[in-house]
Amino acid sequence: MRLAGTAAAALFLAACAAGPDYKPPALELPVRWQLEEPWREAVPGDALDKGPWWQRFGDSQLDGLQQQALRNSPNLTLASARLAQARAMLSAADAARSPQLGLGARASRLRISANRPLTNYATQNFATVQNDFALSLNASYELDLAGRVQRSVEGATASAAQLAADLENTRLLLTTDLASAYFNLRATDTELDVLSRSIALQRRALELVTARHDLGAVSGLDVAQQQALLDSTLAQVDLLKKQRAQYEHALATLSGTPAPTFALAPDLRPIVPPAIPLGVPSEALERRPDVASAERAMAAANAQIGVATAAFYPSVMLVPMVGVDSRMVERLFDAPSLLWSVGVSATQVLFDGGRLRANVDFAQGGYDATVANYRRVVLTAMQEAEDGISGLAALDRAVTQSLAAVDSARRVLDMATSRYEGGASTYLDVISAQQSLLSAERQAAQLQGQRLQTSVFLVKALGGDWCGVASRSAAAEADARTGCPAPLRRVAGTR
Q1: 447 near 204, Cβ under 8 Å?
Q2: Is 115 helix (H, G, I), strand (E, B) or coil?
Q3: Nearest in space to 474 (alpha carbons), one of 330, 334, 279, 190
Q4: Most confident of 44-58, 136-150, 242-256
């Protein structure tokens, strides 16, 4: 009865882990994004595979670079190694829940001194030489009365989950950074092509005005103005080539290739960004690995409060031992050689000058810091999503307007050239029209590049690809509505 009562009391105390149970802080989230047409709502889910989102842009060269980066990136290797360390620490923390067993063996020959201190004045000491052979099985087990081990396992579990989220965030940042550098390079190629066509046009115009000057039809001022415009455009080419080289070097590093051995040929094929459906903020945030990492950091810090609080309670260890000891090997396993012990050790801090309280306060401060960081990450995530939504909507309209501006600038140049050749206007009108056309074409190229960049930014804000994020009841409808390609479709509720 006493034994049963003691066991029941131990189990009761073990169930009462020290420190607060973890509860994620509540956040005031808006009901939905501030949508603009033609945006539609999707139903995202963090349990679904984010997929190779970059395939939506339909660029095989980008696909190859992404696969190369995922294979060779040292950042991914580093994040994977840290996750492996965290999982090993979790295994070590979980091992404390089990008894620790040890096997000991001893074999010695010893001489006892005849001049050793007497234990009995009526008995004289003698020197003896004898053997000592022993085998023992030792065990130790901590009764987790205050829940220290439980909280340690909770903290290690949360830390491993945090580093798993960090690995996913590293993968997401790697792929988005590479796509961003790639689209910058492609936008620069388009601008260089615009400058190349403008230079060809300006060279033909220079030949025309030079010929008219040789015939005495125009002054040398027209020739000088056209030459100055051509020289200015040639200088812009060198600046863009410098920028392109930097983007190329960034792509080399991101893909795990030495920059001197990496090169990408210019590519002028148009890239159309995919239409990105949006869901409510709280659902989208669940898909972001940085938000998940911040939330797991709170859980780990909360568990540390329990570990620090458990130090106020007694530490109780069970230390049973069984073995054999004999001076003769052949009688080592005889019944008289048996020895055993059963013991319990308990320690309780009575006074430490406030050290334990300071440890709890330190753990509490660490938890408060992770809560503040979590709120910061969530607010930043909502800001980034809103920036991406509003930015894409504005850029879609701006790209349409810029293409219309290019058409208008071409008509103005044709009209100015015709008027100049007919003597109805000065060559300054032609120069202005050429500059306006060059500016309009470069602006259109830059806006298209910004639209691609913003698409990548929004993918990062949403935590990756959005295919298969519908609920179980609306999976097929959502996939059809969002235009998921067949290789990327997912069945809701599966991985």
Answers
A1: no
A2: coil
A3: 279
A4: 242-256
User: Is the CB of residue 20 less than 8 Å from the CB of residue 364?
Assistant: no
How many other C-beta atoms lie within 10 A of the C-beta of residue 208?
Answer: 18
Residue 27 pLDDT: 59
**Confidence bin at 43 (pLDDT 50/70/90):** very low
Tell me the pLDDT band of 472, cut-offs 50, 70 and 90: very low
Q: Is the pLDDT assigned to residue 488 strictly greater than 50?
A: no
- Tokens of residue 360, six digits: 């709890």
- Report the distance separating Cα 334 and Cα 195, nearest Å: 99
Tokens of 31: 């009901």
Q: Using one digit for the tens of pLDDT, what is the confidence trace for 356-393? A: 999 999 999 999 999 999 999 888 888 888 888 888 88
Tokens 């050239």 correspond to: 417
465: alpha, beta or left? (left if phi > 0; alpha if psi -120 to 50)? beta
| End-to-end alpha carbon distance in the chain | 52
d(CA 253, CA 273): 25
C-alpha span between 155 and 157 (Å, rounded) = 5
Phi and psi dihedrals of 345, rounded to 5? -115, 140
Tokens found for residue 361: 């306060």
| CA-derived radius of gyration, the chain | 38
Average pLDDT, integer, range 250-276:
89
Mean pLDDT of 446-472: 77
State the Cα–Cα distance between residues 309 and 93, nearest whole angstrom: 17
Non-local CB neighbours of 436 within 8 Å, separated by 6+ positions: 409, 412, 413
Distances (CA, A) of 134 to 77, 330, 331, 353, 444: 49, 12, 11, 44, 88
pLDDT of residue 484 exceeding 60: no
Q: Exposed, middle or buried, 89 (CB in 10 Å: 0-12/13-18/19+)?
A: middle
Q: For residue 448, what pLDDT is reported?
A: 92
pLDDT of res. 69: 93
CA atoms of 44 and 468, how far apart (whole Å): 8
Q: Biggest alpha carbon distance in the chain?
A: 143
Q: What is the mean pLDDT of residues 80-108?
A: 92
- Is residue 26 helix, strand or coil? coil
Amino acid at 43: V
User: Any idea how long the chain is?
Assistant: 495
* Distance from C-alpha of 30 to C-alpha of 42, rounded to nearest angstrom: 16
For 28: left if phi > 0, alpha if psi spans -120 to 50, otherwise beta; the answer is: beta
Residue entry with tokens 């190629």 = 189
The mean pLDDT value for 275-289 works out to: 64
> Between the CA of residue 141 and those of 102, 238, 312, 318, what are the distances in Å?
12, 73, 19, 5
| Rounded Cα gap, residues 191 and 211, in angstroms | 30
Contacts of 120 (CB under 8 A, 6+ apart): none
Calpha distance 103→134 (Å, rounded): 11
